[in-house]
């Protein structure tokens, strides 16, 4: 039987002696039902701070759903979890530490590239060099263009720029290589790689390109039939 998490303290960031602090994620016997479908069937997971995890699985396996659960979009139907030391039920605290980069980027279509990045920084009370990051993802020429007029690959690059700029301690990335050309895929490896190497960001990457994703996040887990197994 899975060992519960009860007993670990709430605000681990305030208690450096607490061993739970080394975990970015802990899930115990997590089940998730959405409508009639049971997507997760007793998932256990421990991820250390700074680790990079690639999440594999067939279409419809539940990778996006698991990332959304970690981002507290859904609560578990059964089981328990802690994200950056906080109980997942404490969604406000958890959300202070995470960024979810969804497959479609989740950008504001009527805002320009610069405005999207300014807004993201503002929401998190952060500052950052927007021009520099736009240059890195080769979007300087489109800085003032509304997102609705960008190509799919350009949107992906902008979403990547936002994840890089925010550098949240736990960054959840859904299919970062989708819609990108070779140079774009290289940028994903570079920028997300830097987040891990230089900012100790914990990365969870759902992808269908295992070889690429493993360069970024070497530990590989496969989701199938609602279960998560190490590869
Ligand atoms: N909000 C929702 N309500 C009901 N069912 C949902 C919801 N979101 C996802 N699902 C279902 O959950 C299952 C897993 O979907 P999910 O998008 O997580 O898979 P995935 O592994 O990310 O797939 P892909 O590789 O195709 O992106 C699917 O059967 C989907 O229909």
Largest sheet descriptor: 6 strands, mixed
Q: How large is the count of helical segments?
A: 7
Mean pLDDT metric: 91
Q: Which class in CATH terms? A: Alpha Beta
Radius of gyration: 17 Å
Secondary-structure element order, as H and E? EEEHEEHEHHHEHEHEE
CATH architecture descriptor name:
3-Layer(aba) Sandwich
What structural class results from the helix and strand content?
alpha/beta
Q: Let me know the number of strands.
A: 10
Low-confidence stretches: 7-16
Number of domains: 1
Specify the helix fraction band: 25-40%
Oligomer: single chain
CATH fold naming: Rossmann fold
Q: If strands are numbered along the chain, what order do they take across the biggest sheet?
A: 6-7-8-3-9-10
**Percentage of β-strand residues:** 25-35%
CATH superfamily: P-loop containing nucleotide triphosphate hydrolases
State the shape.
Answer: globular
Small molecules bound in the structure, each named once: adenosine-5'-triphosphate
GO molecular function: ATP binding
Pfam families: ABC_tran
Protein name: ATP-binding cassette domain-containing protein
Keywords: ATP-binding, Nucleotide-binding, Transport
């Amino acid at each position: 039987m899975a060992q519960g998490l009860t007993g670990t303290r709430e605000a681990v960031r305030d208690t450096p002696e607490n061993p739970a602090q080394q975990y970015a994620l802990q899930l115990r016997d997590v089940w998730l039902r959405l409508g009639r479908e049971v997507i997760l069937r007793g998932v256990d997971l421990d991820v250390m701070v700074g680790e990079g995890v690639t999440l594999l699985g067939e279409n419809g396996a539940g990778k996006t759903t698991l990332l959304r659960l970690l981002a507290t979009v859904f609560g578990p139907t059964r089981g328990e979890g802690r994200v950056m030391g906080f109980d997942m039920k404490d969604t406000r605290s958890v959300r202070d530490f995470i960024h979810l980069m969804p497959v479609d980027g989740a950008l504001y279509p009527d805002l320009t590239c610069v405005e999207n990045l300014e807004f993201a920084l503002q929401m998190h009370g952060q500052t950052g060099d927007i021009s520099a990051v736009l240059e890195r993802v080769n979007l300087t020429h489109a800085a003032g263009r509304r997102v609705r007029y960008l190509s799919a690959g350009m949107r992906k690059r902008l979403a990547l720029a936002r994840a890089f700029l925010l550098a949240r301690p736990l960054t959840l990335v859904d299919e970062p290589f989708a819609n990108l050309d070779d140079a774009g895929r290289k940028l994903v490896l570079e920028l997300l790689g830097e987040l891990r190497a230089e900012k100790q960001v914990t990365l969870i990457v759902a992808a269908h390109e295992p070889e690429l994703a493993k360069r970024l996040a070497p530990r590989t887990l496969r989701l199938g039939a609602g279960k998560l197994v190490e590869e």
